[in-house]
Design brief:
- The chain is mainly beta and 116 residues long.
- The protein is built from no helices and 11 strands.
- Strands 2, 4, 5, 6, 9, 10 and 11 form a 7-stranded mixed beta sheet that branches. A 4-stranded antiparallel beta sheet has the order 1-3-8-7, with no helix packed on it.
- A hairpin with a 6-residue loop joins strand 4 and strand 5.
- The chain is globular and about 40 Å long.
- The chain starts with a strand and ends with a strand.
């Protein structure tokens, strides 16, 4: 059984930082493209950042220079370091592991709220 468990969400003031973690079980993330997505109320889920099994990264324009995705294959965990947070970053953040259409897994999500 595949599980992706996100942690590290919470409430923070604008300009603050959070570090999200996604711990995987039932798969070896080293062969997966790992991604972070987010969904704000009333909006579609969008890609925030992803990282290939080779270590190449990709970021949404809105988070470039502020967020950093990384992976620790030995710990089977992927991270999202979020700095200089803005109110518009408020959303539920989801971890994704993708290899093929039949190997596409999601976590349950973690809430991030940026507010003064």
């Amino acid at each position: 059984q595949v599980q992706l468990v996100e942690s590290g969400g919470g409430s923070v003031q604008p300009g603050g930082s959070l570090r999200l973690s996604c711990s995987a079980s039932g798969i070896t993330i080293g062969i997966y493209r790992m991604g972070w997505y987010r969904q704000a109320p009333g909006k579609q889920r969008e890609l925030v950042a992803d990282i290939t099994n080779g270590g190449s990264t990709n970021y949404a324009d809105s988070v470039k220079g502020r967020f950093t995705i990384s992976r620790d294959n030995a710990k089977n965990t992927v991270y999202l370091q979020m700095n200089s947070l803005k109110p518009e970053d408020t959303a539920v953040y989801y971890c994704n592991a993708f290899r093929t259409a039949n190997r596409d897994y999601w976590g349950q999500g973690t809430q991030v709220t940026v507010s003064s």
